[in-house]
């Protein structure tokens, strides 16, 4: 078979703004401003045989769309089966812009995903079969819960694990959720800034979280601060998770080689594609590190890629799924995946097994794609001004919370 790539098209959309209680770590003010904005970027790779492949790119979708337009001419006439060679060709062509930057990596990810989709469709087999075959038929998921009420509503739907977080009264939130849901449900904490915990606060909070038997403690410190992460890892007896903002095996190698994490969380839309996810999983396996792909702001196409990878690797722990962020998540793709008893079934159709509704994408043009800060008038960051909240005010607030707890 001599298939040739003819064209790449991008599909950029605004997905809406999620309600604050659906996002465990949203920094939300009394007036309902939230830091999360959803833009999704999908792409399709076309071939002269009529087979198309679909992919998704995260990182900074509006900027990545431009990157893909720059990269596209490199692919014209290439055989889409040569996935590794095409990946390396794009890396060499773009490395002047940074080897592990998320914009370049987001672009490579969407293209790589689409090539695996094409190969699966051409060979009439699901992508997991191309990755070594299936180890499991379904993948466990976890939801987000900022409150005990939301955790209970997820539990009532059959979901068996929830993540909460943020840096405000983190221990209190975990305690309230544990009391509400009982011992069966797994709980995770994402400290997700800004503001980030200082290293010592991350350790103090981590120690206070130890009795709650968390599945993991995520991004206890700013993810670029590798030495701080090492101190937390040495000091806190909870599995540590990180890695959602890293791309490629080179971006994550310190975390893996130094065993600074127990759980790696590559983002399926920007880690470098299915090709890199599989390599990351292998590096992790050598260190007994588990994989829990990040999904936070991702659209629904990347979830299919995550399921195929997780089906085929031995060290798949759990997949993030923000069930109720934006309703369009369940309209813009076909088929829609519904969780059952806290699991997603691995898709069995050839390729990734998903397509997008192009009309719906067109009807929702992209909007600004940076966080909207809270309104200082809401008093969310007292004392002081909004501009200084990032570190100082969090430190005051954390100290107060811990003192109140220790004095009953
Ligand atoms: Mg996170």
Give your account of this protein's structure.
Helix content is 38%, strand content 16%. The chain has 408 residues and is of the alpha/beta class. The protein has two domains: 5-129, Enolase-like, domain 1, CATH 3.30.390.10; 131-362, Alpha-Beta Barrel (TIM Barrel). The strands form three sheets. Strands 4, 5, 6, 7, 8, 9, 10, 11 and 13 form a nine-stranded mixed beta sheet that branches. It has a three-stranded antiparallel beta sheet with strand order 1-2-3. A two-stranded antiparallel ribbon has the order 12-14. Helix 2 runs antiparallel to helix 3 (102-123). The longest helix is centred in the first third of the chain and has 22 residues, at 102-123. The chain starts with a strand and ends with a helix. Residues 190, 192, 218-219, 244, 294, 296 line the site of magnesium ion.
